[in-house]
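Dissemination and training. As part of the outreach component of the grant, students in the summer workshop were shown how a complex can be specified as a set of sequence lines and then modelled as a single object. The example used during the hands-on session is reproduced here so that future cohorts can follow it. Participants entered these lines:
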Amino acid sequence: MILTDEEQQMLDGDKGSAVKKAMEILVALGESFGAKRLVRTNNVHMAGSSVLVAEEAGTRFVEDIRDQGGNFVTRVTTNPTAVDPTIWDEIGIPEADHVLQKRLTAAYAGMGANACNSCIPYLVGNNPRFGEHMAWGESSAVVFANSVCGARTNREGGPSGLASALTGRTPEYGFHLKENRYGKFLVKVQVPLKDMTDYGTLGCFTGKIAGQDTPVFTGIPDDPTIEQLKALSAALASSGSVSMFHAVGVTPEAHTEEQAFGGNQPEKVVVFGQAEKLETEAFLNKEPSDHVDWILVGCPNATVQEIREVAAALEGKRVHKDVALWVTTSGAMYAMAERVGYVETIEKAGGTVVRETCPFLARSRVIAPKKGYKSLTTNSAKMAFYAPGQFGLPTHYGNLDRVMKAAVNGVWS
Ligand code: F3S
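and obtained this result:
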């Protein structure tokens, strides 16, 4: 790789041992992917911010970097953690995770991170610009940033994100280059998409056939909501390793089908119709009985709009006594929802608005047996895809209306 004089000085250790180690990581990563150079970035979203992922060794690594004088030179936001800092004990999170998480979050914050602890950084203080080079982790946020915002990022892991935050550089390969951002195959959507769950179902269907390839959608309504696009982004990156999609007439690099494909022909054309939708919904419904005990709304993190819809569904009702309802969100969204009374409505009805964590990044293999949860019911395709394999809970999957009826009645119908 060709380095500038300043980058070479960083690699030689002129800016301290933390920056030297960071530059070594970036050069090794860039060379393994054939990058010719580094590009400047001022925007990092850190994936390795949960102790479920970092554990003791990863936490020490981040603390060591801080103690060597590590200082973030870019804007840095952080992904959800393993802990709700206020009600961790009540919801079954182990104390050891609470203690370790405080250390990890403090280490990131000590180097200058904005510890928003959210998987929707684009809604809580880190809104990417079109064309901006970034180093983001969190697969759902990467797809949203590349596709909906037109920013440029690969899927970064914890160490490479940390290295970019310390140096303000990221290797120029993959989705940083225009020629890698064109669509590879076409998905013709031929069924109405009514709510964010339908968008998640489309994402799950497409991700399974995509691998790492970029899909181009036609037939998506021209006015999807932020919530629908985040559900699509999350599901694409769960059942597949997709980092970007185009929706013709919706996303900024796909004003036309020709633009989305860069003038190339699609390698394949698939249809998403009623049969494909039903088949994917059946795939995500792994729990054969009508048993409901743990309900999750807010993957990716719930917006105030979603929290409002949950509150409206619970107005004058109660969550069934055998059901735990989690609405997972960021601290910032929580504060806004609390201010307008939605949190109070949900809590009075017996639900819980959980901050800064989710069943995927908390230690659900400990929480579920401790609380007696045997299944997970959700309106999120991403969570329904991961729950059976990641923490051993079969899922009920359906739209918010169906999920909230299950919350009140205690059965899946
Ligand atoms: Fe966010 Fe957790 Fe879902 S990090 S995207 S709520 S799995």
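Residues 267 and 304 are 40 Å apart (CA to CA). Students were then asked to discuss how this feature might be tested experimentally.
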